[in-house]
Amino acid sequence: MDWGMANRLSKLFQPDGNCFYLPIDHGYFQGPTRCLERPGETIRPLLPYCDALFVTRGVLRSSIIPAGSKPIILRVSGGPSVIGRDLADEQITTSMEEIIRLNATAVGVSIFVGSDYERQSLMNLSSLVNECERYGIPVMAVTAVGKELEKQESRYLALSSRIAAELGARVVKTYWCKDFDRVTTGCPVPVVMAGGPKCETELEVLEFVHDGMQNGAVGVNLGRNVWQNPHPAAMMRALYSIIHEKAKPKEAFDIFKELKNKG
């Protein structure tokens, strides 16, 4: 592995091998998502426990302070909106020159296995890997499911994750699901968890994150379950304790309650 690639990957994972990425890229298809209307203000109290930000170039330029920034995973796919015909109809939105100019540590692109745009999204990933490998920039593949949320099962996610790795992704972001070890065992590159199922309580979030970590995930790329929580900093710290301090869900929940009551 070339020095540049190795150096960038070392910024994405902490010495324990784990990671906590904070995605704030939702506006690229959802617009001003609740609690993310002013992303710079939203993330400011969360940054101490964040290992990298997943963000679009527009929000990066407008809302992220360059000095002392966390590593940047740059969202480089997009096109359709949440009110459009098909969320899977994505293209690459950002040039290689722009990726380098913005000093991205890594880039992220969605794939939509099983959709009408499966081939297109997989070719987006392949083309991006071809370019980014030339410059030592890791690619994170996001196994998106569009509006077809019933596909959040281990068989589908294992298939999507393995294909992403086979096509050259250095990291795969996928949903947590039951039998999550089926996903991680079949994927030869690090797997980070996205949001997972809809959770009614903080403890449920902490439980699925802990389960995923116990079953092969190296961390999370988790947004709405943090910054849409009424106590986002407390939630961030509780999740950090699971990812980097090996806390169990109830121990992490105690941290959440303590900080919530202080705050």
**Structural class, from secondary structure content?**
alpha/beta
Q: Which CATH class?
A: Alpha Beta
Largest sheet: 8 strands, parallel, barrel
Mean pLDDT over the full residue set: 95
Share of helix, binned: 40-55%
Give the low-pLDDT segments. Answer: none
CATH architecture, by name, is Alpha-Beta Barrel
Say what the CATH topology is. TIM Barrel
Strand content: 5-15%
Overview of the structural elements:
This protein is an alpha/beta fold. It has a single domain, classed as Aldolase class I (TIM Barrel, Alpha-Beta Barrel), CATH 3.20.20. Helix content is about 45%, strand content about 15%.
Key phrases:
14% strand; 263 residues; two-stranded antiparallel sheet; 8-stranded parallel beta barrel; alpha/beta; globular; TIM Barrel
Short description:
By secondary structure, the chain is an alpha/beta fold. The protein has helices at 3-12, 27-30, 39-43, 57-63, 96-101, 118-134, 154-166, 181-185, 202-214, 224-227, 232-245, 249-262; strands at residues 19-23, 52-55, 72-75, 77-78, 91-92, 106-111, 139-143, 171-174, 191-193, 219-221.
In terms of topology, how is this protein built?
Layout: H1 3-12, E1 19-23, H2 27-30, H3 39-43, E2 52-55, H4 57-63, E3 72-75, E4 77-78, E5 91-92, H5 96-101, E6 106-111, H6 118-134, E7 139-143, H7 154-166, E8 171-174, H8 181-185, E9 191-193, H9 202-214, E10 219-221, H10 224-227, H11 232-245, H12 249-262
Parallel strand pairs: 1-2, 1-10, 2-3, 3-6, 6-7, 7-8, 8-9, 9-10
Antiparallel strand pairs: 4-5
